[in-house]
Amino acid sequence: MNGMMMSSYKNVIAMVALQCITAAVTLFSKLALSQGMSPRVFVLYRQLFATLIMAPIAFFSRWKDPHATPLELRSFNMILLTSLIGVTANNNTYFEGLNLSSSTIATAMLNLIPAITFIMAALVGMEKINPKSMRSIAKIIGTIVCIGGGICMALIKGPKLFVNTKHYSKLLLLLFINNIGGENLPLGCLFLFINCCCNSFWIVMQVPISKACPDHLYSTFWMFLLSSIQSSILTFCIDRNPQTWLLHSPLQFQSCFFAAIGEAVSFFIQVWCISQTGPVFAVMFTPLTTVIASIIAIFFMAQTLYLGSLVGAFAVILGLYVVLWGKAKDLEDHDTIQYGDDHNQTQNCKLDLEVPLLLEN
Fold first, then answer.
1. 3-class secondary structure, 309
2. Chain-wide mean pLDDT for the chain?
3. Model pTM?
4. Binning pLDDT at 50, 70 and 90, where does residue 274 land?
5. Under 8 Å CB-to-CB from 340, ≥6 apart: which residues?
6. In the predicted model, is pLDDT for residue 85 greater than 80?
7. Cα of 198 vs its chain's centroid, Å
8. Which of 118, 230, 234, 326 has the fewest CB atoms inside 10 Å of its own CB, making it the most exposed?
9. Is the pLDDT of residue 36 over 70?
10. What is the DSSP letter of 125?
11. Mean pLDDT value of segment 87-110
12. Residue 183 has pLDDT above 70, yes or no
């Protein structure tokens, strides 16, 4: 049981770290886009850098494992489809929406991912709901509270609670100025909604991909490589002016490189966590991105803290706690079944990929 609990803590820590990375990438990517950089060119360089970072790591991992599962045609086709929708379309719609709106709106829209992922997972049979199960009800309520808290932080202000007038950095102040608004908010929100659907598709597809290709580093490398090719074709078709392909400042290069590192680390963390807990649990931490981005904006960019933001943050934390409680009950039952059957004790040392998050009694 202690091993299962330690694994659960690792999953939670990994997902919290992932949301910190996502918030940082969003905030600093906005800087590069605010200098007039094309979102498609940004995605292209991000994917190229991520591929170069992941290539030696993935192939060294394969070289050390003589029993590595070969990449079959079925697995390659799944990775190709997932890279097209879950990586190329995902990144291009996100950064296009970020360019047309703001980093605050972008992180707030990410709160739709848990609900969309839950619907997709339920449609394909990965998630089952038992109305008589207390843990299933807790996870549903926790999901609703968590998403509502994230939306509350972005849309509801209320009275002012704290005003920070200190500017710690010109760079962060510039980021705050660029964060206020965008060129076309409705169109930006539409792109961000499509991004949430693509993101949810990628998350759900990790279950069959992880089963067909257990080497997460290898499958991630292929997604990055295929996405780089797809992004190159898309960028060439839309941005034909060679000047748009150039990086005109060190900040643009640094933002692309930082975003590539963030993507490589984020993809590995997500794939690993999904293989351990299932798709819905992994995305339940998405609203934390809004909380983290708001904290950075308040303490480092002189943004005002409102009552709505504070209430929303508490709702996010409460919702996550309720979902984690339901998941802990699942782990306890799984651990009891595991050690009650000596024949399956070593075989079921961790959660199977096909075990849904919302278990039936």
1. helix
2. 75
3. 0.71
4. confident
5. none
6. yes
7. 11
8. 234
9. yes
10. T
11. 83
12. no
Phi, psi of 305 (to 5 degrees): -90, 125
Using only the alpha carbons of the chain, give its radius of gyration.
21
The Cα–Cα gap between 91 and 86 comes to 8
Q: Which two tokens stand for residue 62?
A: 């394969």
pLDDT at 13: 84
Of 138-147, 153-162, 200-209, 336-345, the one with minimum mean pLDDT is: 336-345
SS3 state of residue 306: strand
Q: DSSP code of 244?
A: G
| Residue 134 token pair | 């207390």
The two three-digit tokens of residue 204, written as one number: 């759900």
Residue length of the chain: 361
Helix (H) or strand (E) holding 305: strand 305-306
β partners of residue 162: 305
Cβ proximity of 270 and 125 under 8 Å = no
**Quick one: average pLDDT of 89-107?**
83
- Which residues, listed in sequence order, are joined to residue 160 by a DSSP beta bridge? 306
Give CB contacts under 8 A, 24+ apart, made by 293-300. 293/23, 293/26, 293/27, 293/103, 293/104, 293/107, 294/104, 294/153, 296/23, 296/27, 297/104, 297/176, 297/179, 298/162, 298/164, 299/164, 300/168, 300/169, 300/172
Give the largest Cα separation in the chain, rounded.
66
> Tokens standing for 22?
């996502």
Structure-token pair, residue 249:
């400042």
The residue type at 332: E
Q: Residue 274's closest CA among 326, 340, 351, 346?
A: 351
Arithmetic mean of pLDDT, 111-135? 75
Q: Which tokens belong to 58?
A: 């993935």
Q: HSE of 224 in the Cβ direction (CA atoms, 13 Å)?
A: 29
Grouping H, G, I as helix, E, B as strand and the rest as coil, residue 160 is strand
